[in-house]
Write a structure and sequence with these properties.
The protein is an alpha/beta fold. It has helices at residues 18-35, 37-42, 45-58, 66-80, 88-99, 108-116, 131-134, 146-149, 156-166, 180-189, 219-229; strands at residues 5-8, 121-125, 142-145, 173-177, 193-197, 214-216. Helices cover 50% and strands 11% of the residues. The protein is elongated.
Length: 230
Amino acid sequence: MAIRAITLDLDDTLWPVMPALERADHEVDAYLRTHHPAVAEAWPIASMRELRARIAAERVDLAHDFTTQRHLTMQYAFAACGVGEAPIDALWEIYFSARNRVELYEDSLPALRRIAARWPVASLTNGNADLARVGIAAHFCHQVSAREVGAAKPHGDIFRAAVARLAVAPHEVLHVGDDPALDVAGARAAGLRTAWINRRGEPWPEALGEPPELDLADLAALADWLETHA
């Protein structure tokens, strides 16, 4: 059966996300130490991360919205220090700018160019990456995020939203991602075909049922497969 469109995860599929997240936390901390030293002293990076995790656990209604989780984290941290109004806009711009200074895997951009030249590609992410800031938005016809849809992978709603935008049937879409549960199992349950970007060559977790249709080392292998078989 023909593949007519691609949905593509971003973090840890096109680039490693942890270096960017680490950088973002450190740049926010540096800003706080310069402009709000009392807040920085009370909430060093480790404590700020614990606070965010606590807010995420308490606000399950925001499981799809990492941006609002971070805004609430900052508001709480400042309020705990007796500061009534946190500079959310400035803090978010620092964080968001650093979070989007990602370094793509070496194979990602050449493969993305090959794929996008022949198939419509929609990004599909639980995170808050900004493709324009990353510099690759031109290769995507749609951008679908958990925050916008109101549901995060593996929930079927986010996959169905992407399929609707692509205007094809679910079985005509190949979803590509690095996470066995969120990407592969989630997409399969929503009726999409599946490709696992398995950069570390890990065994498929049998608890998740049938393995993906494709188990690939990187995006270059995906482009090769698509050009040969799809």
